[in-house]
Amino acid sequence: MRMVLKMKLSTKAGKSDSYSIASLWNINFGSITGSHETTFSNNGELKLYPIPATELLNIALQDEVMPGAIVELLGIDGRVYLKALLRDGSALLVASLPEGLYLCRVINGTKVYTSKFIKTH
Q1: Closest Cα to residue 47, out of 23, 63, 69?
Q2: Are strands 91-93 and 56-61 parallel, antiparallel or unpaired?
Q3: Which residues make Cβ contacts (< 8 Å) with residue 80, sequence separation at least 6?
Q4: Residue 4: is it exposed, middle or buried by C-beta count within 10 angstroms (0-12/13-18/19+)?
């Protein structure tokens, strides 16, 4: 069974469209109703290594890490498996996570970065 998650977005001008969640990697939500200058990015600004990860997942952010920046690891089911404060040169212990595909989301000020990684044993 394949599940496709969709999100409907509407601009201030009233134009709307539906997108699969997988296609929402690099969107500036500045023109979306109810939002303000939040940028979603997956263009090399967030680097995760090693891939696949077994015990530690290193996180490198191209931009300066702002105070209060948060990192989240989400399963493909949308469940948040880990949430922590991000610091420069952060590494997360992922040894206890089940094997599978995960999404790493970093919320840094008004920017949100995402990248996928694989966890193996």
Answers
A1: 63
A2: antiparallel
A3: 72, 73, 74
A4: exposed
**Amino acid, res. 49:** Y
Residue 66 to residues 86, 87, 106, Cα–Cα distance (Å): 9, 8, 11
Tell me the per-residue pLDDT of 94-103, one tens digit each, with 9 for 90 and over: 999 999 999 9
Give the C-alpha separation, 5 to 15, whole Å. Answer: 20
Contact 103, 82 (CB under 8 A): no
Given a contact cutoff of 8 angstroms between Cβ atoms, the answer to whether 91 and 57 are in contact is yes
pTM of the entire predicted model? 0.65
